[in-house]
Amino acid sequence: MPLAASGPATSSGVSALHLGPLHIVRINWGADVAVHSEHPGAVGINIPLRGELETRIRGRLVVSTPGFATVNPADTPADITRWPGTCTILGVKIDRDFVQRELWRVTGRADAVIPDQIDLRRPAAASWFRLLSSIVDQPVDDALLTNTHVAQGLAASLTDGFLLAVLPDETDDRYAVRPRIVTRVIDAIHAEPDRLWTAAEMADVAGVSVRRLQEGFRIYLGKTPRECLTEIRLAGVRAELASGSARSVTDVALKWGFTHFGRFAAAFRQRYGVPPSSLLH
């Protein structure tokens, strides 16, 4: 979402819809503008409904017109270098932690790479855009949309649909619906990443035996519960360090449940190829 704009935009038209961790806005500035955003703590998706939008992300110029969308990664500066007054966009902002949670629920991966641009003409992306458009057309004060449970459910559906639309197709069963014994544990880990989780505690959350829990994770994710716990924690540390809000690597590591810093640093370097301190701003 735009945080700072330059240009003679004095008669902008902005409407917004809030669905818990997901926010949708329709924006037309009414004049040519340039916009800079840090995208703190959220993924931003800008969809031109008319006109052309030019954005520079990590040094790469992304030009989107109707039928395409620009994706701005969380905690990554982006510059909209050209936003004409004739360009109206539909913008979607999704909380970073919510995206990560749904990414696990949908794909079983903690840090899949989301592309900078989406081709909305592809069937899966077109289907997601139709769902988004149908919700945007509802009144912002609609009784259902202002219900917390409904809003949360819609946010999850839109986020899951987005992830399924933009991530590469898989030939295996990676995107199959996860059983409750898996999703319950994943949700619990995200809610309490610093908890000293044992296999028995995770099994209690799922309501099954430890053996059944391990079988479920192996079948649907190809990993053990402990491996998933570590990946979720590492991805959380990486995202928080990259956001620029962290004071120290130690504080963030403790927050995400790492108490042995030597093992943590080694696991982080093995997964991401750099030491955690390299991401500390």
From TrEMBL:
Keywords: DNA-binding, Transcription, Transcription regulation. Gene3D superfamilies: Homeodomain-like. Coiled coil: none annotated. SUPFAM superfamilies: Homeodomain-like (SSF46689). It comes from Rhodococcus pseudokoreensis. It comes from the Bacteria. This is AraC family transcriptional regulator. Residues 183-281 form the HTH araC/xylS-type domain. Pfam families: AraC_binding_2, HTH_18. SMART domains: HTH_ARAC.
